[in-house]
Design goal:
The chain has about 280 residues and is α/β, with parallel strands linked by helices. It is built from 9 helices and 10 strands. Strands 5-4-1-6-7-9-8-10 form an 8-stranded mixed beta sheet, with helices on both faces. A two-stranded antiparallel ribbon has the order 2-3. It is globular, with a radius of gyration of 17 Å.
């Protein structure tokens, strides 16, 4: 829904998991010289202030990226991800957090392209400003990312990473994710598709995962991080996950090593746990 502002949640435990996985997917694509497209259907503002404005309301980053900041002996994937955060905070004080487009902008190469969608008028304007240094390499579109995805596939280089990260405030988003991927796979079966989802006390996200697992792809990977038990009042996000279609073969063993560390570092009680499963290609 258009009322959603990701700034309230910037840098929280869900962002840490999402951006750790996203970074590894971009690193994998960069291993080949052939260019690719990064497509973000719900891009947000790109960069978020942590010390003022929306992010200070609940300070969710305090139990997310702040728990990793300036720690020693970090796992290599965590150190790699934090380099993107450090690029916005070179003096070592944690003031800004990179959203998915900014992280991708730091990782893509000169011949790669970004295609970003954002409907919220204020976030769209901020996204344009934050992405302006990339010039013609990036297109920012103030339209529905689900619909826009159809027009982009297949991409000219026949390589792409698509991030689908809706707010899910509208329950229809769950079914829209599945429908968008069904259509995308018909147009471009070999793309890497990454879906972020929240863990809430509602059945929609679990039903969506069951549907995603039945999509006609060679392989998929599902990883989730639960940082606390479900809330007694039935409200609130207690964890999140990433579902990857056509994942690189390197991702599962990397997460197998990393997820216990993330549970220990970001967990907030006895309910902390992770799930890692795959259907290999």
């Amino acid at each position: 829904m258009l009322s959603y502002r990701h700034a309230f949640h910037a840098g929280n435990h869900a962002d840490v998991l999402k951006h750790l996985v996203l970074d590894q997917l971009l690193i994998y694509l960069n291993q080949k010289d052939k260019p690719y497209w990064y497509i973000d259907t719900h891009a947000g503002a790109g960069v978020y202030a942590l010390t003022e404005g929306y992010a200070t309301k609940n300070a969710e980053f305090a139990t997310g990226v702040a728990r990793l900041w300036q720690r020693n002996a970090l796992p290599e994937p965590v150190a790699s991800y934090l380099q993107h955060v450090l690029a916005l905070n070179p003096d070592g004080a944690l003031r800004y957090y990179p959203g998915s487009p900014q992280l991708a902008a730091q990782r893509v190469r000169p011949d790669d392209r970004l295609r970003l969608y954002e409907l919220h008028s204020s976030d769209f304007t901020l996204l344009q400003e934050n992405m302006s240094p990339l010039g013609k390499r990036v297109l920012v579109d103030k339209s529905d990312g689900f619909a826009g995805l159809k027009a982009l596939l297949p991409p000219p280089p026949r390589r792409a990473l698509v991030l689908i990260d809706p707010p899910y405030e509208d329950k229809k988003d769950y079914s829209r994710v599945t429908k968008a991927l069904e259509d995308a796979l018909r147009r471009f079966a070999t793309g890497i598709y990454a879906v972020w989802y929240p863990q809430l006390q509602r059945v929609e996200w679990q039903l969506m995962l069951e549907q995603l697992k039945r999509l006609p792809v060679k392989g998929w990977l599902n990883v989730s991080l639960q940082v606390e038990p479900p809330h007694p009042d039935g409200f609130g996000m207690y964890g999140s996950g990433m579902f990857i279609l056509n994942p690189p073969y390197t991702l599962y063993p990397l997460l197998e090593q990393l997820m216990p560390w993330l549970v220990q570092t970001l967990g907030q009680g006895a309910g902390s746990r992770f799930v890692l499963e795959q259907q290999a290609a």
